[in-house]
Amino acid sequence: MTVHIQEGLFDLYTIAQKLKKLHNSGASVTFEGYVRDFDLEQDKLDVLELEHYPGMTEKALLDIELLASQRWNLDDVYIVHRYGKLKVGEPIVGIIVFSKHRKEAFEACHFIIDFLKTDAPFWKKEITNQKSYWVEAKKLDDEEKKKWN
Q1: What is the per-residue pLDDT for 41?
Q2: Is the whole model's pTM more than 0.85, yes or no?
Q3: How many domains does the chain have?
Q4: Mean pLDDT across the stretch 29-47?
Q5: Residue 94 sits in a domain of what CATH number?
Q6: Which residues pair with 122 in a beta bridge?
Q7: Exposed e or buried b for every residue in 113-123, given b needs 16+ CB within 10 A?
């Protein structure tokens, strides 16, 4: 189980290929989330700024990994999440799940991203061509997480 919190870009494909050599898994599932451009009444997103508390964030992500590992028989989980100023189209988060079976790998990856959206202590500021503002938690994300209860 591995968690990385970093400013710089990452290459999830290269990471997955390296990790694959370490496991005799039947399946791996990857998820990569990107900065999207939101068209907000003529505003255009220039930068998404993410802040976090070192130590606290890593612990939260490790706790999410542990929850997934308790629910499914996983060979390995790798999570990378960025912070700092990110441009539209850049990756924000990457998840790789290895398991003996595809169903477990898919479900665990889905579970992890749903919990990251609600439980990972990151604060997002959207900076547009006209203003900047902190992003509020989304009710939809909470609803997605509740499906796992």
Answers
A1: 61
A2: yes
A3: 1
A4: 83
A5: 3.90.1170.40
A6: 52
A7: bbbbbeebebe
